[in-house]
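Changelog-linked ticket: magnesium ion example.
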Amino acid sequence: MDVNNNANNITNIFNKYLESKPIFIQRNALTISFTPETIPHREEQINTISKILAPALRGSKPSNIFIYGRTGTGKTCVTRFVCNHLEKAAESTGHKIKVIYINCKLKHSADTEYRLIAQILKEFNVEVPFTGLPTQKIYQMFYDVIDTEERIIILIIDEIDALIYRTGDEILYNITRINQELKKAKISIIGITNDLNLISKLDPRVKSSLNEEEIIFPPYNAIELIDILKQRAKIAFSDDAIEEGVIEKCAALAAQENGDARKALDLLRVAAELAEREGDSKVRLKHVDLAESKIDTDNILEIVRLQPKQSQAILYAICRLVKSNPQKSLNGNSQEIYTSDVIEQYIKICKEHRLKQLTTRRISDLIAELDLFGIISTRIISKGRYGRTRTITLNIPDHIYNKIEKFLEEIFNK
Ligand SMILES: Nc1ncnc2c1ncn2[C@@H]1O[C@H](COP(=O)(O)OP(=O)(O)OP(=O)(O)O)[C@@H](O)[C@H]1O
Ligand SMILES: [Mg+2]
């Protein structure tokens, strides 16, 4: 009986799906892998980068470029877009140009100087063992491989902050000096980051060589985001699939959040997926609300999920304190908790779950890290002659709090 019921249910769901008018005609137009054919509202940056790179078409080394701007402001897509055109333009000039793109945030792509060079060599079809050779030796291989002919190599190092935090900035110094070792080939670097403070943290030698040209990508405003979304929506959706105001709402929400085009596109895609799942023939304003809450929840849950067990224990301690406090504020969890209480609760959790208990100092470090992730906020308050203490507030919106709590309960009580 059960089996038949299941089969009927599935058939019903599939039939209902097939009978409804499709919302999407090209779903991938809203995903990150999609490259738009034109990039509105970035004319200035596109022109500047093109002018800086143009000398490569006559065999001269372009200046190094340092690009920065907040997340989702089009840095990666504009840079790749211009470089693709540059490679195409070079085909008819007789001068060779090779563009290499490395994203330092991708796992294992460039977490050490060795791996970065190995990764670049791979682009020239040279495989090197993942570890083992001395760094000097791998640099030598690198010079030998790229210096075989006259050419300009444009090396895009995206999310360069991740590389610097892992390896220090010595590596950039070495790379910017590579040209001195080369006879035929020349290499130009485009460094990209969304860490606006990075440049001030760099060693002055590195700064001056990497920063020959500096390009800033400002956040998009709501009107610009509307254009970007409309262009994608035209490709992604069938006619009349979106209710009036949906695009405007996605744009407004993303504009509030740092003018992030990725966020705007995500909102529209998730809203449409939710509408589709409900069997609705249109994406409506309510789907955008649902999408926003789903994206927030997913992001926060992901951060919590990826924390080490010890940080999760601290967070669990905070959640338990928030729950046990009878004077809940309206927002449910915006009360301030003393660090000393958190530590006491944390020790209890360690005992209950046979977790190694960290020192107070280490716990403080982990609390500071959770603050950096934005899940909690901490504040130092003075207790008069009793010295100073730190208070903690949980920064999780109400509708997500229960999910986080449930998640933590599950991992600690399984
Ligand atoms: N002006 C634009 N027109 C069309 N699509 C855009 C535009 N700007 C950004 N996008 C799209 O928004 C998404 C984010 O852009 P991109 O990846 O270039 O951002 P970013 O500045 O590199 O962000 P991050 O610092 O997080 O890496 C991509 O899917 C990209 O195609
Ligand atoms: Mg990027």
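Closing comment: Example verified and attached. The pocket of magnesium ion (ligand 2) is lined by residues 75-76, 158 (CB under 6 Å). Residues 329-333 have pLDDT under 50 and may be disordered.
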